Amino acid sequence: MNRNFIALLTAMALFASCGGEKKTAEQEAVQPVMENETVEPVVYENEYIVKVGDVAPDFTLQMTDGTTFTLSEQRGKVVMLQFTAGWCGICREEMPHIERDIWLPNKDNKDFVLVGIDREETLEDILPFIEAVGTTYPIAMDTNADVFAKYALRNSGITRNVLIGRDGNIVMLTRKFKNEEFTALVEKINAMLAK
Predict the structure, then answer these.
(1) Rounded distance, CA 20 to CA 192, Å?
(2) Would you tell me the crossing angle of helices 123-133 and 89-98 to the nearest 10 degrees?
(3) Domains of the chain
(4) 170 phi/psi in degrees, rounded to 5
(5) pLDDT exceeding 70 applies to what percent of the chain?
(6) DSSP state of 34
(7) Tell me: the pLDDT tens digits for 35-93?
């Protein structure tokens, strides 16, 4: 065989064994996930695994009235998700403020959606909780906290609010109930609905 032909075959074999193309540093940093290996999410402020600017993870949940709610069907609207539970004292403190300052002024606005997402409780737990707190905004049931776990570490605390823009991207994230942060949330919603 011709020496050049052998050199060409050798070069082709070496090139093929390297994957055929040069990888960027980012591609080389990505490691394949083994079958039984779990990937730890990147954790941001307040144990969120999403951040402002991210597309809000989609989900479908059953509402307390038996209907279903799918987040992606709300594109074009300003959406506020409030993660709550009857066993959460801070939630019980915050919910009347959400009712008075966010829900009642905007409930008839076709461009606004507010959904409370009750974490890890049954309908039998949720209905007395809602009645005791005195809220009228819609509540969805996240019985296993699977939707919650798309937004924050599964075992992290609530109350949490996620404000989503008309494009489906997260605009604001809150944690606990702090007057200054809550006021900023109300102002942000009002500004977004004014556009």
Answers:
(1) 49
(2) 60
(3) 33-194 (3.40.30.10)
(4) -70, 130
(5) 81
(6) P
(7) 666 678 899 999 999 999 999 999 999 999 999 999 999 999 999 999 999 999 999 99
Q: What is the pLDDT of residue 37?
A: 64
Q: Which residues contact 43 (CB under 8 A, 6 or more apart)?
A: 49, 153
Q: Is the pTM of this model over 0.85?
A: no
Token pair listed for 108: 């008839």
Residue 140 corresponds to which tokens in the numbers above?
A: 């969805």
Judge whether 149 and 133 are in contact, CB under 8 Å. no
Question: Within a 10 A sphere around the Cβ of 41, how many other Cβ atoms?
Answer: 14
Q: How far is CA 157 from CA 18, 109, 113, 131, in A?
A: 46, 30, 23, 23
Closest CA to 117 of 86, 90, 96, 93: 86
Pairing of strands 60-63, 68-70: antiparallel
Measure CA of the first residue to CA of the last residue in the chain; give whole Å. 75
